[in-house]
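haha ok so turns out i had the wrong file open the whole time. this is the CORRECT one, sorry everyone. sequence first:
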Amino acid sequence: METRTKLHFLSLFLFFLLLPVAASFIPLDNYLLNCGSPSNATLFNRVFIGDSSKPGSGFLSSDRSISFKNQNPSPNLSPIYSTARVFTTASGYNFNIKKNGTHIVRFHFSPFVAPSFPLPSANFTISVDGILILKNSQVKDTLIKEYIMKIDKVELEIVFSPLGNSGFAYVNAIEVFSAPDDFTVDYGAKYVKADGDEEYKNLSSHVFETIQRINVGGSKLTPFNDTLWRTWLPDEEYLVLPFAAKPAVTTHTPNYQKGGASREIAPDNVYMTAQQMNRTNLNVDARFNVTWKFPVGSGGVPHLVRLHFCDIVSPSLNLLYFSVYINGYSAYRDLDLSALTVHLLASPVYIDFVVDSDDSGFMQVSIGPSDLSPPSRINAILNGAEIMKMLNVVPSQSKGGISKKTIWILVGSIVGGVILLCLVILGILLSFRRKKRKPKPRPAESVGWTPLRVFGGSSLSRMSEGTTLASPGPNGYLGLRIPFTEILSATNNFDKNLIVGSGGFGIVYKGVLRDNIKVAVKRGQPGSRQGLPEFQTEITVLSKIRHLHLVSLVGYCDEQSEMILIYEYMEKGTLRNHLYGPRFTPLSWKKRLEICIGSARGLHYLHTGSAQGIIHRDIKSTNILLDENYVAKVADFGLSRSGPCLSETHVSTGVKGSFGYLDPEYFRRQQLTDKSDVYSFGVVLFEVLCARPAVDPLLAREQVNLAEWALQWQKKGMLEKIIDRHLVGQIKPSSLKKYGETAEKCLAEYGVDRPTMGDVLWNLEYALQLQESEPQTQQEEVGNVDSQELSTTTTPSTNARREEEADGSGSLEINSSQVFSQLMTNDGR
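then structure:
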């Protein structure tokens, strides 16, 4: 093992010697100071200029400092470590900032012994821009402290303050330079906790202290190979079980994409090496995790964990699925790098996680196989890892009295307050004048919406589940993209009068495109319960399938931080509304059968139209839409998943669906099959027959759950007693019998006992044939029972709810006369 490792790193060393030095990144602000010296010095081909001993002529903020030179410098260290600037009182440096934004600040320390000032015993604090970033520091060896922070002032002040009995502070060199604009973004990071995860926003408002920077699977990288002059350490000493990992290396440079990782995020060499699962001499389907433990210090402090990925181990796309865990918590399930990189192999991405450290003093990162991986392709990879402590922003203490800077701040605040008050009064006066004036249309605002970076980066860390379908091809997604300006025109700047529905994802508008095509525009909103994964899944699924009984995707928009889906407009709205919505004409039994048959055809196509098929996972009456001719179409594919492979029986995944429709076997075992859709469709069948919700908490306990209640009557052979009162006298006994038997089979407790959607479709078509067969006498028609009996044994909610909804008090819809969206309901999934 040791010999193999040495040979591996020798080959890597020889290979990377032949690589060109990383292209220089040119920051607008770029200050490199050789402290305590009037002369310049170099480090990794970068020139550090000598700081000035005269205040006002250089960077020093005062003359209360002393310069020292090491009389016995180490030949192994750069000259910048042979001199130091010593501060006996709180003092430091000032830097003019040309461009506000993210900056990297580094301090170099080498504690040599100077006359009267033994640097190893120095104890001091450092504040940057009034923020205390380093406290009680006693440096015992040469080191570099790096901080990443956002600077929004024209002058940056760095102050060194002595503590305790040491009476002095010191520094050997300082770097202050601009970072790329997208180095830390304010959105997309996942806050990983014991009770789940959520999005962590406003990252750039924090100050980050770099704790670990690791080149996983590779050798040490020096600033020569990094455009931001960083050092990356090898990972072998951090591996918990070294034999569980196997290095991977490629000679091809990464395929960088706009919106993904760049050379400033991590250099080429990081993405050209990795650790993967070492499955040598193990069973072909062996499943285990590769784990690293990185020391991070005392617990209870939030850390930014940035993980770097680049698929250099797969021969083609859509073969690598794996999961990521941090400190034992699930951080990313079923990660598909192909989906994050717009289907380009070996394209670098990074994902940001915010994790609280624990009392162990370590941050544990693990990668392991996904249940989506076929047995022959079980693998997991990691290319790089960075861990940064998120510092509490603590203002440094005043030096005593009120400084001139503080006075100017107070004066500026008072003057600003007076100006603000005047502007408010002026705004109120102007608003009175404009009250009678109709406001001009203006572009809809996008500020504050969750941005979407489809091509990778940290924003996609939110995606936890997706489809495993193949790529739609080079023109697939792009051919569906619709400009945001065209959507604004189609919806009259998202006119509130065009709202036809709302739900978990956002608001649905009716729109008309330039070619006079009516569309429904689903616009995502902050805090959406669906969000990015379902947005992407919807596009992935609907961009490749076309069927008469599946709603068509017209296009999508991801510009200006928007998540917008555009569908064909369904004039008659949802099936639910026609069953028990207000102000709707009740459907005939024949029409209901035709709607169920159309829906079954759409689901049958989903389940059988491809090798693996697609499982919808959210079949319900609000996800079945009707066009102007009452043709049924299945909609809302945001929760869809690819079915199991031919060699598998199910897909293991987290439970998602809607209350009342959820397959109990799927809920218990978290094993998804196409029979889960069959169960949900069985609930819809009873919903169509009884015209009542799948769950109605206002009813008696035994009637709350429609599936359980209807099955009781079906098994008694008395299903006709609970049908919709509008169907009384319409249904032939033979048709109802076949329909009830079909619904009962769909609701079997175990999936293996349920029919396929093909069988369901056949039985429904037979029920329709029985209904349309030779006429029977009125006495033979189902439902010819006493009206008094109906009032006591049928759905008590039906009449009550119709009366309640007639006056609007029970309606949960908006403009429900022309509703498109399956998101009309606000029920959680």
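The two ends are 50 Å apart (CA to CA).
again sry for the mixup
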